[in-house]
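User: Run a structure prediction on this.
Assistant: Running it now.
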Amino acid sequence: MFKFEDPSYLWLLCLVPCLVVLRYYGLWRRHRKLRKIGDKELLKSLMPDASSARLACKFWILMAVVALIIVVLARPQMGAKVADDKRQGIETIIAVDISNSMLAQDVVPSRLDKSKMLVENLVDHFTDDKIGIVVFAGDAFVQLPITNDYVSAKMFLQNLDPSLIATQGTDIARAINLSASSFTQQQKVGRAIILITDGEDHEGGAEEAAKAAAKKGINVFILGVGDPKGAPIPVGGGEYLKDNNGQVVMSALNEEMCRAVAKAGSGTYIHVDNSNDAQEKLNSELSKLQKGETGGATYSNYAEQFQIFALLALLFLVLDACILEVKNPRWRNVRLFRKRRI
């Protein structure tokens, strides 16, 4: 069965009936003018070699060529085979803190940008694993459902920004609970939640959420981004976030809380700084998880078929060139086409 790689071209087939209508309208007007010139039989005698059948044949050949070229542009394909691709890997949900405090620049270029680069490198390290993205601040939502489409993962990753969530704050418990419910139902596969944050838990309950995830066989890894000494939060124009008293707010990495949550979730706490140590440690920890079948994907491999239609169009063009609009004197006695009727 045919499918088309770019079916948007097929609407051009509407040109064919339009051209047919224009042709017959033109013939009608031509016949009207000829009748005004003189007698029908006299005109036939003046044009003994003219043939309406030849003109009609050349026109329909041209219409066939137009239709075939349009089909070629749409790239017809035919299914060749169906393959079942089995994958062995782990499932990972990455929860990224996008609260305003993640804009602090104690990690270059900023906590949030450093987190993006870390996740992108992690995705490049994946092969047959599945990945999902959750973003959180004072609320949490799924940015990318779990998938093995790494291109989409990187695309969604670049769009992460504090403006995605209107409710500011840092609700780590909500992020862990949402991440834990975002895995597939596949059995016997290692699952991990990688939570990237500066550790400012404003709502509480993070340890309890991590323990609940661990009971489901999900390891919770905490990546703490920033400096425990703290850094100001830029708000643009060279200004920094200030409190009600006009004092610059200093956002500090809460490593103690991060370690406690990671321990409760049977995972590991990893400090993210300006080096690549965090990336190497995370890859090492994930490699210890059990790899399982992360689902089979059925692929249809299609073979291009436009060559057939292109060849037919070429043959029709050759045929059109061979058919003259008037009868060849050498073949005057061979009447393949009738004389044109006036």
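Residues 41 and 342 are 8 Å apart (CA to CA).
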